[in-house]
Amino acid sequence: MPATPASSTTLSSAEPCPCGGLGAYGECCGPLHQGAAAKTVATLMRSRYSAFVLHLEGYLRRTWYPDTCPTDMGLSSHTCWKRLEVLNHWQQDGHQDGQQEQEGQHEQQGWVHFRATFQEHGRWQRLEELSRFTRLDGRWVYVDGDPQLTALKPGRNDPCPCGSGRKLKKCCAV
Question: By three-state DSSP, how is residue 102 classified?
């Protein structure tokens, strides 16, 4: 996983996507950062994680429900995002019986359970959250979540928390 840049930046479309998705940035989160709509809450969650990695404050604001969007995004050059794990996600059908709606427009609520691992001031931490999403003007937006922050204390010979599969001393501790 790439280190967090100190300020807003873009990746080339061929570079691996920060969200850990299967494709390159230009096929994964890049199109969403350029204005494409996320089709699922999991896709939006991944693109928001990438936006935190890349310090894309404008994108984070556009994909945050206006009533819950904070003044300060909390983007810090001291935070180095390392890994995203989407543990579960689901969308609720808001379609009412006997009502015809356009396909894909009837899902009104969604949730994503994720874990994000990061380093801040040299300390490893894990943010786990059940995030809530809603549709606003036909697009998914983040509403809020129930964050749980856990300090990690990996030893040099433990697997690296970034998820590389290597020992910490041969990975992120170098």
Answer: coil
DSSP state of 22: S
Interval 113-170: pLDDT, tens:
999 999 999 999 999 999 999 999 999 999 999 999 999 999 999 999 999 999 999 9
Could you give the CA distance from residue 116 to residue 7 in angstroms, rounded to a whole number? 20
Q: Contact at 8 Å (CB) between 82 and 52?
A: no
d(CA 108, CA 74): 28
**Distance (Å, whole) CA 98 – CA 101:** 10
In order of 14, 107, 134, 144, 146, the CA distances from 17 in angstroms are 9, 27, 25, 24, 26
Predicted model pTM: 0.87
Give 99-104 contacts, CB < 8 A, sequence gap 24+.
Answer: 104/39
**Where does residue 171 fall: left (phi above 0), alpha (psi -120 to 50 degrees), or beta otherwise?**
alpha
